[in-house]
Amino acid sequence: MSLLSRLLGNHPDEREAMRPLWHRVVELARAKGWYASLGVADSMEGRFDMVSLVLAAVLLRMEREPELAEAQARLTELFVEDMDGQLRQSGIGDPTVGKHVRKLVTTLGGRLGAMREAMPHGAAAMAPVLERNLTVRPGAEIAPLADALVALVIAIGATPNDALLSGQFAFDPA
User: How far is it, in rounded angstroms, from Cα 157 to Cα 75?
Assistant: First the structure.
């Protein structure tokens, strides 16, 4: 596609097919159960933590299927686009927004790696990952959070590709 075509927008956005899945990731990350029942801090940091953890769970599932590599890249691009917009809305300006986005992407990558390593060993191995990577309310118990995150990964893992890509999978962290 020529530069002129790209600039004029004469082609469909390749990310659009992933938007329902991205919306489901955000919806799941905002589920009240994480905050009301499981102790995640209801703050900007806690909400980012949940978005990145839910997204990491989905990306881990997509890694298992080579045919989902392109979809995985597009979903990650939606994450970057959304984080860029959120940062700009919160008042971070052009000169530094890229630096902040890179930090958030690095954080996502770190969480993805930590979850990839811990998941085969279950909730007991996931608890230290959450202790390092999740903003919780003071006194919150990590074990129930670890159980819920492992259950989420299992639920996503059992979802057929078509349902996953369209964001049609069920999970309730309550």
Answer: 17
- Count Cβ atoms below 10 Å from residue 74 Cβ, excluding itself: 20
Instruction: Convert the pLDDT of each residue in 15-70 to its tens digit.
Output: 899 999 999 999 999 999 999 999 999 998 999 999 999 999 999 999 999 999 99
- Cα–Cα distance measured from residue 30 to residue 164, given in angstroms and rounded to the nearest whole number: 18
Residue found under tokens 């191995």: 125
The full set of domain ranges for the chain reads 16-165
For residue 46, which amino acid is it? Answer: G
Q: Are residues 150 and 126 in contact, defined by beta-carbon separation less than 8 angstroms?
A: yes
R_g over Cα of the chain: 17
pTM value? 0.87
Angle, vertex CA 20, rays to CA 85 and CA 49, nearest 5: 50
Residue range 70-128, pLDDT digits in tens: 999 999 999 888 887 776 677 666 677 777 678 887 889 999 999 999 999 999 999 99
**What is the CB neighbour count within 10 angstroms for residue 77?**
15
